[in-house]
Amino acid sequence: MPLGSKKPLLPNGIARPAMSFEDDLRRVEEHVAEARRFVQRQKGLIVRLRAAGLNTLDAQRILWLLESNLRRFEQHRDRLRANVRQ
To answer: What is the pLDDT of residue 83?
Structure first.
């Protein structure tokens, strides 16, 4: 086996089976859904901070990062979906 091509191991030392395409797509869909929940929660936090008259700059920065991650997950999902259609 060439260097660097070892199979990932599970905590018990057994080689992890390769994920099927459907498993990969399902996992990405879960990441997208979770990222959306984080974005919505952060938006709610910003609303509450503003209502309390507090500074929201740090919370807004975190929101931008969360939205950036969400876009990346969506792009990955869209690439996987496009591969299904081909």
So the answer is: 82
